[in-house]
Design goal:
The chain is of the alpha+beta class and 259 residues long. 49% of the residues lie in helices and 19% in strands. It has five helices and seven strands. The model has no long low-confidence stretch (mean pLDDT 80).
Length: 259
Amino acid sequence: MRQHELEHRVAERTAALTEAQHELMKQERFSAIGQLAASVAHELRNPLGAAKNTVHTIQQIAVTQQIDVVRPISRLERSLSRCERIIANLLDYVYVGEPKRRTVNFELWLGECLDGQALPAGVALARDFAAPDAVVAIDAGRLPLAIANVVDNAMQAIMDFPDGQPSGTITVATAIADGRLTLAIRDTGLGITAANLPRVFDSLFSTRSFGMGLGLPTARKIVEQHDGTIAVTSELGEGTCVTIALPLAPGQNEGGKNE
């Protein structure tokens, strides 16, 4: 009996050590990827800046010489802007600084974030706020990126409908549950297949022909840096819901009011 217990304990310790080793290797790989991404981004920004300046010079020359280069220049500008977004996405993903938190009335702050959200034609944004007194400690420079990434994914899911004019609604809902502030972002888009759903937080995973698949992984990283959680549920053809839960600021009860 003792030998069996000893073997069981050895197996548990071995499994724990193996898991710790894998986590350490994962952190080391992430650190290396982060250093590489930051270095590549820095090196690319200079030639991209030079290319944008050159485009501006070409436009001026074309106007002087009365040469029509509007379409090719527009394509070039879009490509350069896309490269800049890729660099920004990489830097957002590998950012490792601690959140610089300040306490805010979450719904007032969230409303301001959503006010600045650009929406394509056919996509509506609805608010279903139910936690008016909730105060949360957040990094107001980082958390908006997580929310914007989720909302952008929701917009794209609606725009991805293959037939007809894209139309749908993104609903942003807040509530207090289990002593935490919950933020649910639901869309009426295409939804995610059962096979792809477990992979939505995997780095570089994307079902689209563009983008790097860093939106949701970056959102999860930011939320976890705020001691929060993020989860995705979806049904193909019915839409997707991303739920973020954040701790209330100290001194608040489950109703979001100060104790």
